[in-house]
């Protein structure tokens, strides 16, 4: 029998970016990311107090949804939030995915795809029936990104009514 050379283990950095649930300690950075996202939106006006309140509600009430981040030990590169609701059409729980944002200095490195893949795996593991997202109508780049992640256009169109 011919001796085989020892196999070299692939080194994985302890500081490699990974996805995990956000914590309340992440709130200031998450608020910055969300505020920056809304700066580029024609549908929303950035309001740091409101964005922080909304994020806090999700973080403090995990039965309503989750926030996941891609980070290393020193820095958060991006975030995604998922809200839980019911669908009579699907006969079960579904996810509304919102606020997919990667810090502008870290785009194009696969972090958005990491976050979406994590949410899909989470939804599968927890037996959710569907993931729905809203993306900017005017951003073909954003739409192409989500199509690459397996999302399809729907015949449904979003409508909203503000309750003040």
User: What is the CATH top level name?
Assistant: Alpha Beta
Amount of helix? 25-40%
For the sheet with most strands, the description reads: 5 strands, mixed
Q: If you consult CATH, what is the topology? A: Aminopeptidase
- Proportion of strand residues: 15-25%
Number of strands: 5
Mean pLDDT: 90
List the helices and strands and how they pair.
Elements: E1 18-21, H1 27-39, H2 48-60, E2 65-71, E3 76-87, E4 92-102, H3 111-125, E5 131-133, H4 140-148
Parallel strand pairs: 4-5
Antiparallel strand pairs: 1-2, 2-3, 3-4
Helix pairs in contact: 1-2
Please provide a brief summary of the model.
30% of the residues lie in helices and 23% in strands.
Can you describe what's shown?
There is one protein chain. The protein has 164 residues and is of the alpha+beta class. The protein has one domain: 3-Layer(aba) Sandwich (Aminopeptidase), CATH 3.40.630.30. Helices cover 30% and strands 23% of the residues. The protein has 4 helices and 5 strands, in the order βααβββαβα. Strands 1-2-3-4-5 form a 5-stranded mixed sheet, with helices on both faces. Helix 1 crosses helix 2.
Key terms for this structure?
164 residues, alpha+beta, Aminopeptidase, 5-stranded mixed β-sheet, 5 strands, disordered N terminus
């Amino acid at each position: 029998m011919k001796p085989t050379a020892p196999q070299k283990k692939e080194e994985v950095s302890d500081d490699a970016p990974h996805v995990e649930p956000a914590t309340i300690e992440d709130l200031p950075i998450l608020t910055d990311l969300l505020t920056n996202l809304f700066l580029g939106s024609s549908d929303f006006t950035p309001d740091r107090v409101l964005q922080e309140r909304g994020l806090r509600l999700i973080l403090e009430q995990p039965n309503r949804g989750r926030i996941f981040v891609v980070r290393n030990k020193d820095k958060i590169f991006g975030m995604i939030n998922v809200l839980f609701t019911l669908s009579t059409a699907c006969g079960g729980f579904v996810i509304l995915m919102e606020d997919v944002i990667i810090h502008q200095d870290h785009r194009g490195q696969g972090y958005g795809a990491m976050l979406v893949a994590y949410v899909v795996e989470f939804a599968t593991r927890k037996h959710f029936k569907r993931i729905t997202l809203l993306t900017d109508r005017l951003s073909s780049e954003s739409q192409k990104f989500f199509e690459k992640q397996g999302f399809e256009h729907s015949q449904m169109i979003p409508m909203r009514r503000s309750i003040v």
